[in-house]
Specification:
Protein name: DUF2024 family protein
Pfam families: DUF2024
Number of domains: 1
Organism: Psychroserpens ponticola
Radius of gyration: 12 Å
Helix content: 25-40%
Strand content: 35-45%
Strand order of the largest sheet: 3-1-2-4
């Protein structure tokens, strides 16, 4: 499966910047829904962050997804890859 990778940076209330990717099927183009996926992910965190906006979530590239990402997408419609300051 080909997926679109949305590169995302969010300021945490403690001053750290989170960096994570939101992955969706490559044919999925609804940016409002992609932002909603990111905000859903953030709401499950134990620390506070600023809200996710289109200014800090940008399409980056398309790649072939590993099976774990395909499984996430089939269950939730998206997958998150945590890169920095996500825990």
């Amino acid at each position: 499966m080909k997926v679109s990778v949305w590169d995302t940076y969010v300021q945490r209330k403690d001053g750290k910047t989170m960096h994570f990717d939101i992955l969706v099927p490559s044919n999925f183009k609804n940016e409002t829904q992609i932002i909603s996926f990111g905000n859903s992910y953030l709401s499950a965190k134990t620390f506070e962050t600023k809200s996710l906006t289109a200014d800090i979530c940008n399409f980056c590239h398309i790649e072939t997804a590993p099976e774990s990402v395909v499984d996430d997408i089939s269950k939730k419609g998206y997958s998150i890859i945590e890169l920095k300051n996500c825990n």
